Amino acid sequence: MKVIFFAQSREAAGRDEYVLETAKPLTETEFWAALVSALPALAPHQKTARLARREEYVLAGELLFPDDEIAVIPPVSGG
Amino acid sequence: MKIDIELTQEPIARPQTWPVPHNPETGSLVEFYGMVRETEGEAKIPSLRYEAYASMAEKVMREKIALLEKKYSCQAIRVVHRVGVVSKGESAIYVGIQSKHRREGFLMLQEFMDEFKKDVPIWKSA
Predict the structure, then answer these.
(1) What is the ipTM of this complex?
(2) Do B122 and A79 touch (CB under 8 A)?
(3) Domain holding A45: CATH number?
């Protein structure tokens, strides 16, 4: 599962993207547990960031699949 | 509804020029320029840096506009958002809405900006 980062999440991750190895679909909770395990500096973002897939926000309860590209979206501040 | 969305590294000119012919049914053009303030609390800010998840930002904006145009019968909307470094006093965003009468234009602009600030993946940093 490819994970891409923006703004504060990119700064915390120290990279633009990361490949999260998983063979099975993940709940959002499982996703964050695996991601924070690999990149601990992202832990504070779990409470504030939203996830997006195919440029749409992931809704509560949706599973994340191994071939998904997941964007970690910190609180937005444009305009 | 005619929709024109642009993310640009170039300064947003004031006033904006619309790249489309004037619609003879248009009786109102409501415009908003969001500018970089020189101060934020006690701090002086020379500039802000904006970054975008560009493809998603445009998609989310189009979805918002599609919902809003069911409520407000506007004829055209133009949105320009700056990315990169934006100096104090310069515009970070321009939104213009053409409609037959002013009321729907004002209402749509207000609601579009509220929705924009909630969900469009663009970020600013000092």
Answers:
(1) 0.94
(2) yes
(3) 3.10.20.30
Interface mutation vs chain A, best among B123, B124, B125, most A CBs within 10 Å = B123
Between CA A26 and CA A72, with CA B53 as vertex, the angle to 5 degrees is 25
How many A-B residue pairs are in contact by the CB < 8 A criterion?
A: 58
Question: Does some domain include residue A78?
Answer: no
Element containing residue B39 per DSSP (H, E): strand B39-40
pLDDT, averaged per 10 consecutive residues of chain B (126 residues), comes to 96 89 89 94 92 98 97 96 97 97 97 98 95
**What is the total count of domains within chain A?**
1
Pairwise CA distance, residues A48 & A53, whole Å:
17
pTM of the model: 0.94
Name the residue range of residue A15's domain.
2-73
Residue A79 within any structural domain of the chain: no
- At A32 the three-state DSSP class reads helix
Cβ within 8 Å, pair A78-B123: yes
